[in-house]
Design goal:
Helix content of chain B: 10-25%
Largest interface: A-B, 45 and 33 residues
Largest sheet of chain B: 7 strands, mixed
Order of helices and strands of chain B: EEHEHEEHEE
Structural class of chain A: alpha/beta
Low-confidence stretches of chain A: 38-48, 121-147
Oligomer: heterodimer
Distance between the termini of chain B: 21 Å
Number of helices of chain A: 11
Mean pLDDT of chain A: 86
Helix content of chain A: 25-40%
Number of strands of chain B: 7
Strand order of the largest sheet of chain A: 3-2-1-4-5
Largest sheet of chain A: 5 strands, mixed
Shape of chain B: globular
Mean pLDDT of chain B: 90
Number of helices of chain B: 3
Strand content of chain B: 25-35%
Radius of gyration of chain B: 15 Å
């Protein structure tokens, strides 16, 4: 069974073609038209977040993904996300479903992130081409890969940590497709804390990689930042106060005429990153213990952060818990994960008719 | 270096609508109380433009507004998703739209995300963060709220 995945829920326009055989996945092609390079030219603010951009990019991305193949199943992100952006993917998918007479699967974007864990640790994707200068030569990623053995070390039930620009959630996963929301951010997502922290420190966009890079040469213990809700005993997060404390700290230092050397910035970045990572790690390990699970799955764009990956791996393995995390290029938004989650639903015949599928901007997985 | 975090005061200035008022809030809770009091003056159809720097209290204010309008969901930052639509349970107001223009850079993009469709609906209140990015397309009678850290 071949599955076309389509993803337009946020900034990335992506399509992927995967083949599923008895629960094993093989990635035939993955194309992500990344907009990050374009964003940088505009001084750190995302200029083209609008649906119009997906409209321009999606058909060429799908054409490049499919070549002459007509897939057996079409999987599309139907939510959560910005409704006008989601609609571009959904309308395209329902049209293709109608024309090709192929069944359609509506995929939850967050469930897609979870399923990036099941595509396989060793798929040979390229890191997106960072030299792309404009949309015309946007980052087309993809390469043939061998059939991947699905993540066989995963044991259900599992705890899932989803961390991205828009989400910070802990979910209890009883089995494939079965979720229970345990906790989430009460204000800002972890990715937003990185982005806005980078803005305060003048480190540019995207904030996650910018802070991580600056933090490499900084002292994570130099500045004391709060660890919000660390001891709250539940699985909820809060990052708004942490962002504000960085802002106040920088403001106070400027007012006190502290000279901002490169070292000051790298120390602030390292300390700030450490605070975010500490909270995510503590909450996740606590939840894993409380739920007595043997597996934790990490996913979402912030999971590309090296300190977070390493810290979770270290702490969870000390607890005897297996930590699964997708390769970095499958952590950020892509369509392979949508196709993979779609394949599972297709196996279960959870199809939606082309004329019934709709964008659901606030679709919760649990 | 130990940091004092939440004791900072913020000044909140409301211009337009039934309010012409200045407030001082010394905590997030106080900010939400001011928002709740302000919510009592809303009739539906208002567009509220929230001006202020990062960390000035805009989202905190909207949290208080939402609570007072009977929104039961947790109000989270719309920076990344750009727009959240909540079901409200107040007399005439059944919808609260929370828009964040932080990532926008042209006024026209507000229409592209579908945000302006909610302006002036009598059952809807729209709260907009970083409205300076879309000033030219804001309704003339938008209520202006300014947040400043002391």
């Amino acid at each position: 069974m071949t599955i076309l995945g389509i993803e337009t829920s946020c900034d990335e326009t992506a399509a992927a073609l995967i083949e599923e055989r008895r629960g094993r996945f093989r990635v035939l092609k993955s194309v992500v038209a990344s907009q990050i390079k374009i964003h940088e030219q505009y001084g750190g603010v995302v200029p083209e977040v609008a649906a119009r951009n997906h409209l321009i990019t999606l058909l060429p991305v799908i054409a490049k993904t499919l070549g002459k193949t007509i897939p057996d199943v079409i999987a599309v992100t139907a939510g959560p996300g910005l409704v006008t952006s989601l609609l571009v993917g959904v309308q395209t998918a329902r049209t293709l479903s109608y024309i090709w007479k192929r069944p359609l699967v509506a995929v939850n974007h967050i469930e897609g992130h979870v399923y990036a864990n099941f595509v396989g640790e060793n798929s040979k994707f390229q890191i997106p081409n960072s030299n792309a200068k404009n949309k015309a030569d946007a980052n087309f990623v993809g390469e043939n890969s061998k059939f991947q053995i699905p993540n066989s070390k995963v044991r259900f039930p599992a705890v899932v940590l989803i961390v991205s620009g828009g989400h910070t959630e802990l979910v209890f996963m009883k089995g494939h497709g079965q979720y229970e929301l345990l906790g989430r951010t009460r204000d800002d997502a972890a990715g937003e804390a990185f982005d806005k922290g980078a803005k305060v420190l003048g480190l540019g966009y995207p904030g996650g990689p910018a802070i991580a890079k600056a933090a490499e040469s900084g002292d994570p213990k130099k500045y004391d930042f709060p660890r919000p809700l660390l001891g709250s005993g539940d699985a909820n997060f809060s990052f708004s106060g942490l962002k504000t404390s960085l802002l106040y700290r920088v403001r106070d230092m400027r007012a006190a005429k502290v000279r901002f050397t490169k070292k000051t910035t790298t120390d602030l970045a390292a300390s700030y990153q450490q605070a975010i990572v500490d909270v995510l790690v503590a909450k996740t390990t606590h939840t894993a213990r409380e739920r007595s699970v043997r597996t934790v799955l990490g996913c979402g764009g912030v999971m590309a952060n090296t300190l977070l990956r390493q810290s979770l791996n270290t702490r969870l393995s000390q607890q005897g818990v297996y930590f699964s995390v997708p390769p970095i290029n499958l952590c950020t938004d892509n369509a392979v994960m949508i196709a993979a989650a779609g394949a599972l639903k297709a196996r279960r015949k959870e199809f939606t008719s082309w004329n019934a599928v709709d964008a659901m901007s606030q679709w919760e997985i649990a | 270096m130990k940091l004092e975090t939440f004791s900072r005061r913020r000044r909140i200035k409301i211009i337009g609508g039934a309010h012409q008022k200045n407030f001082v809030a010394d905590s997030d809770a106080a900010t939400q109380n001011i928002a709740a009091e302000f919510a009592l003056t809303l009739k539906g159809g208002e567009v509220i433009a929230l001006y202020g720097d990062l960390g000035a209290g805009k989202t905190t204010f909207v949290k208080g507004l939402a609570k007072a309008l009977g929104v039961t969901e947790v109000v989270t930052s719309p920076t990344f998703v750009l727009m959240n639509v909540y079901r409200a349970h107040s007399k005439q107001i059944s919808r609260l739209v929370h828009i964040d223009c932080y990532r926008l850079e042209r006024a026209g993009q507000l229409a592209e995300i579908g945000g302006d469709e909610y302006f002036g609906n009598s059952d809807t209140v729209v709260a907009i963060e970083w409205p300076e990015r879309v000033n030219t397309v804001l309704p003339k009678d938008a209520i202006r709220i300014e947040f400043n850290l002391e």
